[in-house]
Amino acid sequence: LFIADGHHRYQTALNYRDEMLSKLPEEGRREVSYRMMTLVSMDDPSVTILPIHRAVRGAAHFSEERFLRQLGPFFEVHRLEGKGDDMQPILNRLREDSSVTTSFVVCLRGQKFHFIRMKETASAMETVPGNPHPAVRELDVTILHSLIIEKMLSLSPEAQDSAEYIRYFRDPAEAVRIVEKGEAEIAFLLNPTKVHQVRDVSLAGQVMPHKSTDFYPKLLTGLIMRKLEL
Fold first, then answer.
1. From CA 158, how far away is CA 176, in angstroms rounded?
2. Residue 193: is its pLDDT beyond 90?
């Protein structure tokens, strides 16, 4: 079983069970040892992962020109025509290479969009710091946060964990608006993580990076409840 949604609830259920086992009679121990869940085939075509886009602020002495030069050794960089109020052509360009290599759309102030695609000669194995497991190292979000945000924008992993520096958006247009309003210097639009990547990372005994999966559709809540008789 792979937990697509609800890992915090699952961990809380384990903690609650462990806390209550010594306090309850046998019937109560049985009650706290089970939880409801919904099982869905990973091969079901309706199982979808949505992308989570990023807007970044606070990069020290940020310069658009210098940043684009820093991308050069690792990525092909192509200027895109487009506007924030019509994102579809930009998103279509991003999705074209989603099955080939790592790619992003970089959004700079003034509605300047750049499509960047990792070069074949730039191995993620060699460029990502920290030596994470190969299944994690090759994820788009790992390359974005480790190679681009940490090494090029000089935001440490600790800084990245702070909402002060990175904001996350389901709506790509909202990430672009944040940049245009001056609340961030740069936004990154991503392709979604693939279901098989979640499987591979899990089978390797690893966990997915922060904000790398947004499974869809969500289950409706409140229709079924489980009453605990303790």
1. 24
2. yes
